[in-house]
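#lab-general

N.A. 3:47 PM
ok so I finally got the sequence cleaned up, no stray characters, all 407 residues accounted for. can someone with queue access submit it? mine expired

B.Y. 3:52 PM
send it over

N.A. 3:53 PM
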Amino acid sequence: MVVICNRVLRVSACLSVFAACSGDPSRGAGTRPPLPQQPAPVAGAGGAAPAAGANGSAGSFGNPQPGGPTGPTTPHDAGVGVADGGECSGIDEVAPNKVLPADIIIVIDQSGSMDEETQFVQGQLNTFSQRIVDSGIDVHVILIAERPGGPEGDNPICVPPPLAGADCADNAPIFRQVSQHVDSHNAWDLILSSYAQYADLIRPESQKHVLVITDDVPENVTGQQFDQMLRALDATAFASYVHHAIFAFTAPDELACALGGVTDTCCGLAAGAGDAYGQLCDQTGGIRANLCEQNFEPVWAALATQVVESATLACEWAIPPPPAGATFDREKVNVRYSGDGQAEQLVGFVKTPGDCANVANGWYYDDSTDPPSRVLVCPQTCTAIQSLTSARVAIVFGCKTEEAPPE
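B.Y. 4:20 PM
back already:
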């Protein structure tokens, strides 16, 4: 049985860029190639990522590439947002919007009773990851499990290419394996204690998913303690995460199992009921599945689906470079959005993110570079855009910037 506690509709959106001068119609449509057939080059933990497009790199595995499809450029009368009495005729260039990336932490019990489960994880991680990549999501997968040749030796896991590198190696930044043996009770402990070994792959803006697979119960920390300690590792990164688990829903009756003739599906498959894992799944809106049913393919499919459907718009857009002979003027930019049949709305400018609290809708520059490289919208505006099943956001260049009126 697979229980999905929460579903979020994925927003489909596009970005329109209006410029007061010619756009570039030559940009080609971006594609996501399938998994390569050749093994990826080895890139150890913390090592540099291979160049995009090389075997095993983000390009060859199929993660979204820079750029994206653009339709034919057409003149557009900006209209809204013109404060100086003029009309801003521009070029309508359509590009795909960016969805938030996903970082997935998987930890699997490698005790002697988990033979079939560890083999399934080893065989299915590529398919699971590619399902997410094919949806356009940039994914990082962190697996906590001992590789072959480790000191413990029980049920080692070697993930094959193209997700991993050759000979069980990492494939930065897409995949990293933290080679530590996981016993029956310490899955949560290892997620916390080994954080320094994978922290660089956890992105502040990404959606976070944690998956625990075990046939027993946690002993050293409670679900509440794990939740608090995980958030304490990085208050920003883990402010919101989803916990999933494959565990035994019930503990087998050992005497009845020994006598035989019983219908308990957990006989010989589980050592204890992992209720604590299930409670954290319910608390965070994750998927819980019964390990005793030994039907894992639907679980991985449901998990991949939830990762995809919970992806939301990033609510930020790169500012395209001005054409030859033109210069960027930060005081002549406006933002507006529409969707679901609603009238187009002007979004006023605020100087800093802190000013968002004083306006109904707003946008601001990312001032980490000069000139700025991105346009971002305030949280309340982001929520409004994400609520649309089909959103269109326009950035208008060449018109005097309209400031957001105070509430």
